[in-house]
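Dear support,

We are seeing what looks like truncated structure output for some complexes. This example has two components. We would appreciate it if you could run it in full and send us the complete token output so we can diff it against ours.
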Amino acid sequence: MTQFQNHQIRLASRPTGAPTPDNFRIETAAVGEPESGEVLLQILYLSLDPYMRGRMSDAKSYAKPVEIGAVMEGGTVGRVIQSKHDKFKEGDIVLSHSGWQSHAIAKGDTLRKIDPSIAPVSTALGVLGMPGFTAYAGLLTIGKPKAGETVVVAAASGAVGSAVGQIARIKGARAVGIAGGADKCAFVKDELGFDAVVDHRAPDFAEALAKACPDGIDVYFENVGGEVFKAVFPLLNSFARIPVCGLIAQYNQKLEEAPGPDRLPMAMRDILTKSLTVRGFIQHEFVDQFPQFQKEAPGWIKDGKLRYREDVVDGLENAPEAFIGLLRGKNFGKLLVRVSE
Amino acid sequence: MTQFQNHQIRLASRPTGAPTPDNFRIETAAVGEPESGEVLLQILYLSLDPYMRGRMSDAKSYAKPVEIGAVMEGGTVGRVIQSKHDKFKEGDIVLSHSGWQSHAIAKGDTLRKIDPSIAPVSTALGVLGMPGFTAYAGLLTIGKPKAGETVVVAAASGAVGSAVGQIARIKGARAVGIAGGADKCAFVKDELGFDAVVDHRAPDFAEALAKACPDGIDVYFENVGGEVFKAVFPLLNSFARIPVCGLIAQYNQKLEEAPGPDRLPMAMRDILTKSLTVRGFIQHEFVDQFPQFQKEAPGWIKDGKLRYREDVVDGLENAPEAFIGLLRGKNFGKLLVRVSE
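Here is the complete output from our reference environment:
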């Protein structure tokens, strides 16, 4: 029996405001033996996603926080290196939720086999995985874009935003992306084929967004919050839909101390007078649509209608820094850590 | 030909903050002759509703404001006293949108005949009219209460709120009302049969509401805003639905100057982490459900499951004062003006 060294990144302390490297701790532990029904995995890719900021806090949310001292949670793609489950054999590539570590023992029943012939296996964490499905389910079920309508999405070069805009276009809507900086904006417009893109760092951002949406906004897929939301709100048309998927711009803030004026009464007034729909969601809720997504998305990728970009960081030890950068918008495309070859 | 004196209340000026008697002007004008296809109406009842505060302002909304100098808008029940429309004859009772005046000429095609044998004709402006239908459509289409869930509604003794709670109970949900003062609270609990009621004027209002909702809140039918909303928000369960029907507590406020902290980021966080649905609406949108409402509601009234209370003020000249009081919660039940016998 081979003994593997398991490299792990654990939560050392809860951040106040933006996470710092001190909030994480690298540890090395022995890897145990899989029991009956379990497999031993070597992790290939770890997904880094904004929701993880929520897990680092102990505020009440839809999911339990990571305990202090526990391995950070996260979606992973791994290779089976030892199997005691009859559905898996050595060499199989599987999707698991093994967290920030190099090896893991997992119950076979919690795993999904990945077919490497469809697309690179890393896409199971991106465009063909949770972020892509989040875009698909939130946009189509809550946003319900109609042909000719205007769909706006921020973080448009990111894992979720890039899929939102492209799926909106597949459905005949006009996609307007918001991204930070010239490179990302060029990518969104030229590579992803959005109808328009606006740089949220530009001093005239709100005016530029209004210009890019001459017929107003029918769907705003909310994944950032903050200043972008402020610019979007006045442009919303009557009966506009706002799937609320994330609020990355405020994850590091102390919301109870947000300076006035209190914008909630104005927002409620607009919700009333424009008959708006604001709907928070997480993709679990729409899990019955996942088979349909799995049927449709690979064809869109093949046809070049659903493009994606990955931002791959090498080495598990670099995960904390990459994650801290993600919350500042430093990544360019779906952020992944290549844990091993 | 008889010549009638038409007494009218016109908008004299736009209010800043709460309306005052000075914002209205009483005038007397001659009544014209109906042309072909029109009828001459003597108004019996004028409905006074919170939405009228919006029409007095020129802020952008779903409906055009009343012009300065124009007759105030409003729903009315009238008697046909001269008809040049073959579907109406003298003595018919009709629903019209004739506004704050004693007589009106109306196109026959815009009128709905009222059958006085079903219920008192005034109910066409209340429990069987726009307010009752607003409750029905907003609660059932957006709120979607399930048996055993908790539905909370404020202004629970009012035209909309009273129907919301009772229809929630008809659907098997638990109805918790919020009302102002002991008399209204007793009425909501004892006459309307709500499961619980909380007085929003009580110093321990937020705690009392929490106690009245031991399983949290699944549907909050929003028709007031302000302090009530603050107390409700922390009690909302995951997947709660909030039909936004009105915000009477903030209609007189300068929202742009609402003092901080800014509660919008916290509200958005809760919308996200609890997968809430917040949906503004006006009843027009659901007009295709009106026939179904007309079929169901009279039976509920007959069976004592849908009770109502009217607050009738005598004399058109008292409409401004009554309306000003409505915005302060002074009315007790559906507010109507008896314009003539």
